[in-house]
Structure formats: C-alpha cells, structure tokens
Amino acid sequence: MVELVSETEYDSERDRTQSFVVFRLGKEGYALEVMRVQEVLDMQSLTEVPGGPRFLMGVINLRGHVVPVYDLRAPFGLMREEKPQHAPSVLIVEGVEGDGNQITGLLVDRVSDVLEFSPDEVQPPPQLGLGKATPFVRGLIRHQEGFLLVLDVDRVFSTLGSLNGEGV
Amino acid sequence: MTNLEGSADDRFREMFYEEARELLIGLEEGLMDLERRRGDRAHLDRTFRAAHSLKGAAAMVGLSRLAEFTHGIEAVLDQVRSGNLGIDSDIITTLLEARDHLAAMVEAEAAHSPIPASSELSHRLASLLGGPGTRGGGSMPPAGGTGTPAPAPAPTSASASNSSAASPSGQNGHGRGEAEGGQAAPPRPEPAKGGRSAKSGGGSKPRAPRKKAGKMAAAPGGDGAGRKSASAGSAAGMNVYRITLAPGPDTLRRGINPIGVFDELHDLGHARIETDLDGVPAIDDLDPERCFLSWTIILESPATPDQINEVFLFFADDSTVAIERMEPDGSWQVLPRESPADLPAAVVEPEVRGRGLFEGTAPSTPSAPPVGRPAAAPSQVSIAESAMAARPAAAPPPRHVPRPNARIRVDASQLDDLVGLAGELAVLSDNLMGLRDIRGTETWLHALESLQRVSREIRDTTLDLRMVPVDELFSRFPRVVRDLADRSGKEIELRIIGQETRLDRTIVERLSDPMVHLIRNAVDHALEHPSDRTEKGKSRVGRITLWAGHEGDRVAIRVEDDGRGLDRDRIVKKGIALKMIAPGTTADDPRVVSLIFEPGFSTRDTVSELSGRGVGLDVVRDAVRALRGTVTVESTPGKGTAFIFRLPLTLALIDGLLVETAGGKYVVPLAQVEECVALNGMRSALADDRPCIAVRGELVPMVSLRSLFRTDGPLPARQELLLTRHAGQRVGVAVDRLLGRVQAVIQSLGEGLHGFNRFSGATILGDGSVSLILDLSALVSESRFAEQTSRFTQQPGGRAENLR
Q1: Quick one: which of B80, B246, B412, B535 has the most CB atoms within 10 Å?
Q2: pTM across the whole model
Q3: With bands split at pLDDT 50, 70 and 90, how would you rate the model's confidence at A32?
Q4: Which of A73-82, B34-43, B681-690, B766-775 is predicted with the least confidence, judged by mean pLDDT?
C-alpha cells in the first residue's frame, strides 16, 4: 500500500506542479496523474469471469463494491509474469475524472512512488519506438537516468471498452 | 442579506421546477383525456387548474416568460370551459404541442439556459381564441404580475358594456359568458380579465331583469353570480369586501409571496390594507422564513366573490382567509370560501408524488390562528396602499407543526445505496446465525435472532421504498398512442388496467423503451385500418390494452392488441431463409413464434416511419432480460397479439442457488431453475457427442457449464443438472456441485461489462468473495447459437450473443 500525498500539503504549489503515481510495467516506468487514482491496492484474490473480455483479470470486492480489474500488461504487449519478483499492485482509477462511481482496477507490476512534476517537464511522446504501448503514452518525463512514460488512461479505457464484448 | 435572498430564491426556483414538472404531467394527462371525457366538467376544471397553477407558480418565482406562455394555454382552456370553444383534435394537438414546448422551457430554465417562448405556438394558441383582437398569448399579464396595469375598475360601466356588446369577437367572448353567467359561474380564473368581465357584469344590469331572473332559479348553487347581481343592484356594480388574511407559518417557505396578492387585489379595485403586527415576536425569536404578519383589507371592487377567492388560490389550509361582503344594510356577510386545498392537489396526484411548493395538500394545522384574531387585533398600523414594504418575515413563538404523512424527496442513488447496504446487512446477519452451532454461544442466541429479524425488516422496508406504481410508466402511453394514431390514420382506443401494481423503480424506468416499441409495432403492423377492420367484422376502432398484475412473486405486464395477429407462415418462410430453423418446420411449431425475438429477424422488408429502423424485437427481449425478466408472445390469427413481460418485483435482491463449477462459485436465480437432478449414472441418450439426456423419459438437451467456460481438468465423479426452460423447451445446465440457497444483493458487473449477457451481475458472498450471477437463459441461447453457427457455417465456437 502506498501512502498517497494529501492534496492540501501541496496546495500552494498545485498551480505549477502535478503529482503523478509512478509505477513499473515490464522494464519501463510509467506515470499517471494522482487525481485519477483513487487508491492503490495490493493484488488480492479475485473472481474470474469466464468468457469475459480479453484483458479482464476478474472482479474484486472493494469494500462492498464489485470492481473489474484489467491487466495493463497485456494491451502493452507484455507477457504475464508467472513468478513476479514483487506482488503486483492494482491501481483503482476513476473511469471518468471526478466520478467516483465508475471505478476500474488496473493491474501493474509495482507502484513505486508519488512524484511531482511541472507541466513543462512533460515532453511530447515519440512517434516510434514504443511498440504496442505507443497509443497509450501521451508524454515523456525525464526522470533520474531515464524517462517516465505518461499514461493516457482515457485511451486505455476506450481501448478496453472497445474490446469488451469481443469475448475470448 | 442579498446573498441570503439569492439562495432562498434559488431554492424556490428548484421547488418550482419540481412542481412544474408535476403540473406539466397533470396538464398532459388532462389534455389527453379532454376529448374522451367531453362534458366532464370536473376533469376540464382540473386540467385548467393545472395550467393556472403553473402560470401562477411561474409568476411567483419571477419567470414571467413562462407565465405568459402558459397563459396562452390557460386562455384556450378557459374558453373551452366557458363553452365558447368546442374541443376538437386540432385544439388538443395545439395544446399538447404548447405543453411540450412549455416543458422544454421549464427544463431549459432549470438548466440555466432559457429558451424563448415559441411565437409560432403562441400565435396558434391565440388564433384558437378567435379574432386578432384577442391575442391572448403574449399580451396578457400573468396572475401575479404587476407589469401591466389592469383595466381600471369602471364605475361607469355602461360604455364598456356597449363596446363589449358591439364587438363580440373582440371581447374574447367574455361579455357573452358573463351575461349568461347566472347558470354557470365557475371560479373566474383571471384576475386580470376580472376587470373586464366585471364591467360587462355591471353593464348587463339593464338587461338583467330578463336574463337573470330566469337563470337564477336554474343556477345550481350559483351563489356567486346570484348574489352578485343582487349587490350589483344595490351598489352600482361595486362590492365592498373585508378580507382578513393570516398566512400560515409555512406560507413563505412554500414560495408564496403575500405581496403578490395585494398587487392582484389592487388590480381588482380599490384596496385599503392594514397590517397587523401583533404576531411579530422579539427580534431574537424572529425566524426570517416565517410569516408572522396578518392583514385586513377593505376592497372596493366590482369583482365577484369567486374572483376574490381565486386571488387566494395558493394559500393552503394552514392560512386563514376570511372574506366578508358588506350588505346593503351595512352589515358584513361572511362568504363561503372555496377551499383551494383540493384544487391543484387533484391535478398533482398527491398519492404518488410528494407534497410540494404550490400544492394545497398541506394538512390542516390544528394550531392555525383563529379566524377572528387578526380582525380583533388591538394595534393596527395603517400602511399606504402600494408601499407594502413590510417584510412579511416575522415570528410568533416557533411552533412545531406536526405533519401527518409528510413526504420527502430523496436522491435516487442514495436510496439505491441504502437498499444495497440493507441487503448486505441481512446477508451478514444470516451468516452470523452460523454461530449457533458453536458451543458456548447460547447466551447470544437471542441477540442473534433479534439481529436477524431486525435486519430483515430493514431490508424489506428499504426495498419497499424502491417500489413505484406502474402507472408512472403507463400514464405516458395515452399520448404516445394518440400521436401514433394521428400519424397512421388509424383509430385506436387504449385501455389501461392494473396501473396501481407496484414495481421496482428501475424496472419501471427501463421498461419504457421496450413498451413504446411494442406499442409502435401494434399500431404500425398489427392494427388494421378502420375500413379493413369493418370489412372483417371487427369494431372500427382498434384496441390496445395495457395490463399489469401479480403472478406469484412476479409482476406480469401485457401489451395486447386486437389486430391481425402474427403471420406464422411468413415467419416460418423467413426463418428458413435465414437458416434460423430447419427447413420443413411447420407453422404450428412452438418455436416459430419465439423466432421474432431473434436478432436480425424481421418480416418487414421495408422500414416504416412509425416502427423502428431495423431494430427488432430482440432489443425488447434483451432489455427485459437485463431486468431479469422474460417476454413471451401469444397470438391468434385475426384476433390479435399479446406480449407478456414477466418481471421480478425488485432488482436489488435475488433468491438464488449457489453452485460450483471448476472451482468457481456462481449464483443461479432460483426463478430460472425448475428442478435439479443428479447427473451421475445418466448416460447420454443419443450418441456420445450429442449432449442430450433423458429425464423421466423426456429428451432434454444439455449445456455443460464446464465446456461453455472452457475449463479443463478432470470431471468430478458427480454432477448436477439444473433444469430450466428456454423458449418453451426444457434444457439442462450441468454444474459440478450445489452449495445451497443464497439471497444475494445484486450489483452490476461494473463499467464496460454491461453488454455481457451470460452474467446478469455479481454479488458479494458472506465470506467477502465476489460471485457472478448466471443468466441461464442467456447461457442456453448462447450455446444453441454456437451449435447452429457451427452447423451452418462450419465455424466452431462462434460468438453467441450479438454485440451491442
């Protein structure tokens, strides 16, 4: 479980900087706006949905609400690790910004941090070189020795949505 | 202070919108029935009052454009009421269109993006009133409005009466109405018009001996007009009224501004108003939302008592309004006050809808101030006529007024949350009963049982809150049918039976589209043209019947027509052409009828304007299935067709069977299971690769959950077969184990999984794990479709359900 930074602490700087949840997916680091993330869970037991959409891992009980959990590795062209080094994390993300009623779980390798960046630090994404992840990346952030890919979570949802109903 | 007023204003506006929506419903229903209930005076009055109340309500919250547009509708209805305008289909259509536009205006206002009144409709309304001289639409001031000065009361009314007599059309027919007023003196609706009608009333004096003497005897309780003519004779058309007004404590909260009343009274004649400050408490006790003032008004006016009464239409029973008239001998005669309480209430269906802003159903308060109090008040402050600046905000000692059967409005999603929680509570307390089996817990047994009982009661009570009468759904169909009949040139009668049957709110909401679909089908395809019907010896008018009622623990809804019935031969031909049924199937095969619910099936090759554009009955079936219901059809050629929905009473809870297959636990709705039989030892009745089983001599096709879910692993030694019925046929669904009965709180599977048919939802079991709810009939049609696809197209494993 990662402690999310409380909003008020950064009230004065909120204009200039934005907080991002940083997580790993395969060998890359990704960043997603904190505003969209309701909470981060450790992977728990989930109920599989036979014949469900391709990337649907199953559904979980989040304090009495049934929430679907999708595997984010699959649409990014990554294989599912049989024996991951760390237990994977589940990002609980609002399907529509500010709407706490539509929440979806996204399974990622490991949430590592919450960091702040100013908008100027977000560069446009490269047109090539990211493979299957290309449509889901809306920017790059230089961080430490490498780059963080900024996740376009709306694109992720619309892709998942269009896959729903396609079945196995 | 301005801020405070602003927010209070907003609140009144909000209340107005809700009230307006209800009045608009009442208006629509009233208009719909106007043609049929011709001559039903009470109905006409109710309809008129819906418009009148709406106009007044709009004016009171300052929405003058709305009020003016409503006035156009009201004016037409008024003419109908006075008998100057006969009801016909065109008038109703215009009024309905105007109502729709009015509804749009209200919604636009509520959304803070007001739209203008339709001048075209205003014009059409005005033209209904007759000559251009009576352009009622825009020019009439609203009831509470102060903008247009009313015609001055005319003591010398002879000339006025002359003019009204000279130009009958120009005077809105009012002169005529008033001259005949002796027989039917309904409450005069329009204070603004009051001046004029009063004029002609006064003016009619010369003719009075002839007309009135004759009519007065015939006047059924027409005390208003009768007395009026009496006093008109004595005081040259002027009456002197003494009105005592003591608004009830909640009057201001209901958004009623007494100042509007004074304005109206000023419009009627010369009013002298005295304010009684006696009830005003010390500043500390002053509740700014309460009205503590009362008034005594001496009004010299030619208006009739009915007109005066109408001014006070919006004062509920908790207000005191006493009207006295000075008799020729100088004494005061108390006039009976028509109780406004039952006027708007009748329109608003108080049973169904909440008590609201302008609705007069406020229960009478036993502690309301006695009538005599204001008049007997010792200290009276005289106030100059129009300087009614007195804040009608004052406070006698705050009284708590008990409100029997008061209603509150609740946010629907909050209610749903509550129902969900209550259901979970019941499940949890059921689980706790397992503690009984543990030694040493005997002392807690009583508490456990009480907990179970109370939580079940909570669940049942909250469930009941979700139930609404199906009338909320049915009541919109008369309009739908009328519009469709208009367009198709068919004559249709709609009968509604059992509209008080209560159903889950969500079901009622979501049933609307499927039902409209069926009704359209009935009008477009099923019902014949009047000439064809008479030829066939049927009544000219086609009939559609909507019926609702209970069938065991389910609710059944029938949509029935007496049209031509399903054409089975054509369905069979089409079914064979589409390879949905085997060639050679006969028309009386029971499966034929269910074909019409299959996706892509339509016997119509052309798309008509009325019925859908290639959207078939499969949409209806899917919608009903999503509500955990079924739809069946019964049809007799030449006699008609009936579609029957069978629906659960509530969507929130489900009685289910917990089953296990390949390690997964699933809930099967008990309503879908006819029987469970053990599968072990049973051999396939046909060849091994044809999954069919003989149950007591009957050949039953079987669907294996394991193969459907594509789970591998060794088959358990024992399996169970759930027997269900699909399209009239028994089908078995094989599962590994039965784990017992559960009562499950249903949750949706979450965003993006709605189009996914085989599971109708999910529930959380007592151990906190999530279990999926299986829809057996979707499973069966899925596997049946898969089998047929593989047979016809050689593509194994085709997707069963169409995508949405």
Answers
A1: B246
A2: 0.47
A3: very high
A4: B681-690
Q: Cβ distance B631 to B620 under 8 Å?
A: yes
User: B564 CB contacts (<8 Å, ≥6 apart)?
Assistant: B526, B527, B528, B637, B638, B640
Which DSSP string do the residues of B236-252 spell out, in sequence order?
TT-EEEEEEEE--TTTT
- The pLDDT, as a whole number, for residue B528 is 87
Minimal Cβ distance to A61: which of B758, B759, B768:
B768
Task: Say if strands B492-497 and B542-551 run parallel, antiparallel, or are unpaired.
Answer: parallel
Mean pLDDT of B622-632: 82
Q: What's the CATH architecture for B469-567+603-648?
A: 2-Layer Sandwich (3.30)
CB contacts of A60 in chain B (<8 Å) are 770
Asked if A53 contacts A89 with a C-beta cutoff of 8 angstroms, the reply is no
Domain ranges for chain B = 1-148, 151-159+172-397, 412-465, 469-567+603-648, 653-793
The confidence score (pLDDT) of residue B154 equals 42
Fill in the amino acid letter for A59. Answer: V
For residue B802, count CB atoms less than 10 angstroms from its CB and return exposed for 0-12, middle for 13-18, buried for 19 or more.
middle
Please state, in angstroms and rounded to a whole number, the distance separating the CA atoms of residues B527 and B536: 12
SS (H, E, C) A129-157: CCHHHHHHEEEEEEECCEEEEEECHHHHH
Q: pLDDT by residue (tens digit) across B112-156?
A: 888 888 888 888 888 888 754 443 333 344 443 343 444 444 444
Residues 93-112 of A with CB under 8 A from B: 95, 102-104
CB spacing of B751 vs A56 below 8 angstroms? no
Is some CB atom of chain A closer than 8 A to the CB atom of B697?
no
Domain-wise residue ranges, chain A: 16-163
Class of CATH domain B1-148 = mainly alpha
Nearest chain B residue to A163 by CA distance is: B752
Q: What is the pLDDT of residue B688?
A: 56
* 8 Å CB contact of A47 and B708: no
User: B764–A61: do the CB atoms touch at under 8 Å?
Assistant: yes
- How high is the pLDDT of residue A22? 93
What CATH architecture applies to the domain B653-793?
A: Roll (2.30)
Classify domain A16-163 at the CATH topology level.
OB fold (Dihydrolipoamide Acetyltransferase, E2P) (2.40.50)
Q: Select from A47, A51, A103 the Cβ nearest to the Cβ of B771.
A: A47
